[in-house]
Amino acid sequence: MKEFELIKKYFTEQAVNRKDVLLGIGDDCALLTPSERQNIAVTTDTLVAGVHFPHNTPPRAIGHKAIAVNLSDLAAMGAEPTWLSIAVTLPEIDEEWVGEFCAGVFELCEFYNVQLVGGDTTQGPLSITVTAQGLTPFDKHITRSGAKVGDWLYVTGEIGDSALALQHHYNKIKLSKDALDVVSKRFNYPKPRVLAGQALREYATSAIDLSDGLLSDLEHICKASNVGVNIVLEDLPISNALYDSLGQQDAIELALKGGDDYELLFTVSEDNKVGMETALANVGVTVTCIGQLNTTDKITTTLNNKPTHINAQGFEHFSQKD
Questions:
Q1: How confident is the model at residue 51 (pLDDT cuts 50, 70, 90)?
Q2: Which pairing describes strands 31-32 and 21-23: parallel, antiparallel, or unpaired?
Q3: Domains of the chain
């Protein structure tokens, strides 16, 4: 099968057909017609086999995750996802693999009403690059730089399970079957907090999605907003699977440094706490307050009201030395 036959058979068949897409797949460019007085949010992420997912990851999971991580970026800005393009590099054409990959892609696209409008296919080591675009009202979006001293720090969902799945994959820990089932699903099929992000437009002063680890991503907010923060470690939302597998101290460290959570970390003023909690409850998303911002320009941690030091560092590309 040739490249254009592959595209026609697998990538053009989709359920979503948005009215703001004037021209989609099949030409040199897509033509899009957003409504007036809206900002277009644009994000790009690349997933590389052996770096972002193990080589034996099911193709449906790869397709799902490739879309989810981009929608998570849009969610952190409070954007409604609308269009995306995919560049897929394949070692060879495996129709069964491509079919399952596309199933994972289109499941999320249909759920969030996102249309695939273009992309590219080429031969080489397995990698997927997605560019996703979304819309926010002209004067309503969230950035990393709006946090203020006194704001409260919140996180959606639970953190650390994806990192625990990788610990098992790399034989650093042996998980029970039940625990492995739970954390593998969190790693392979993350849930982008799209509706939560849109709800937070009315309440959050800053936000970021958790991809490289809580401490690493929180540092971006602190630097952009010129604030410090203290994290209350016993308040971290850690799953039973993580806590039971590692115990409190190791579970906390992994929750702080482990990446691939794709939850939202955000700040809210005292006046907006109740409204925010109500709004997120209405979209079915749990949130946990884990700290408060201060003037120190540092990230500190306490456990049971006592200052403590955590040996944790998030993931960073090119940080590993031979």
A1: confident
A2: antiparallel
A3: 3-137 (3.30.1330.10), 152-308 (3.90.650.10)
